[in-house]
User: What shape does this take?
Amino acid sequence: MSEVEPTAPPVRRARLLWTLLGAMIIVGLVPLVVSHYFLISINRDSLETLEKKYLTRSAVGIATDIQNLLANNTQQLTQIGGSVRAMKGALPAGSDPFIYGEQRGTITNYLTPDGDLLGLRILNREGKGATATPARLDPSVRQELDLALQAALTGQVYTGTFQFVTAANQPAVIIAVPVIDEGATIGTVEAIVSLRRISERIREEGKGDVTAFLVDRNGRVLMHSEPSVEVQHPDFSNLKIVQEFSKAPVHLTIPYDDNRTGERVAMLGTVAPVGHPDWGVIVQKPERLAYASVSKMVRATITWISIALVLAILAAIVFSAGIAGPVRALAQRSREIANGNYHQRIELKTRNEIGELAENFNSMSGAIETAIEQLKKAAHENHLLFINSVRMLAA
Assistant: This one.
């Protein structure tokens, strides 16, 4: 009795649908994801650069306004000094133009309600001459005026430290220029220059989520976009950006942490040096707000990428099924033919190569079925012929 050989287990084959689907995902979706990844990176860098440029432009704008204010008023004082020098030439010999100006009261012509000059002194080397300053002037301002006088008498243009004129309720700075005649310094022109317009500009820039303030090299706040902070003049020397400005007064934009309120807040700030005096304009904004457009862009891009991925996967499934379905049907019909069922046919309406393959399959299946029928008919005829031959021999 012969032993029946065990049949080999069927070989597991990967389905064509998954193969096609995987190929479409790799070919179509991977480049899409990679391109959007780099697109997000490029857009993030562009938006971050724009935000940094905005802060830098604000800080530089305020610093430029301060420089222009100081330069314009210095030029005006120089012109006043030129008038004094011209007056000396017009007066009789031995006359003092500074005393003459005091007697005529011409100094008040330079002080206007909408001007930058809060006070003015036109003094000779003995400190005598015309004076027009606010009443009850702060001692620190008087002391600064005396220092300016001594510096200007040496032939130097003097720009003092930040002052606050209580009588005028305005921030100010002292500027003094020498009056030089025939190579010798004969006196000075000093002015208390209001920084009111700068304070207004800083408050205007500090609206919303942006904070703007002016500091000296020691980190002391001179003017701030928040009035309450401006009154206190706190010390911000613990801020990294102020520390960097104290080391070297250069343009700088950096991220840093602000822990002054007891809570760590990541900030993005920029500093623009004024030059002379050694002040720095700092404009800062919380990083989460500064880069809010970046986060919004990333979320929007990821959302649309996800939608595109889902649609692409659905389209890949549909197209893969459209290809794999007919091929699977052809495989099933071929298996039926292999099992002896030769009347198999497949109906496909596609006009591509798969449709042509289905037509060829039907033709092949019909030819095989005809050949098998003919073989069966011939076998039957041979069987009858054999039987008749045996009968004839038996008879």
About this structure: The beta strands are 117-124, 129-132, 158-165, 170-181, 184-194, 211-216, 221-224, 252-258, 265-273, 279-286. The radius of gyration is 47 Å. The first strand starts at residue 117 and ends at 124.
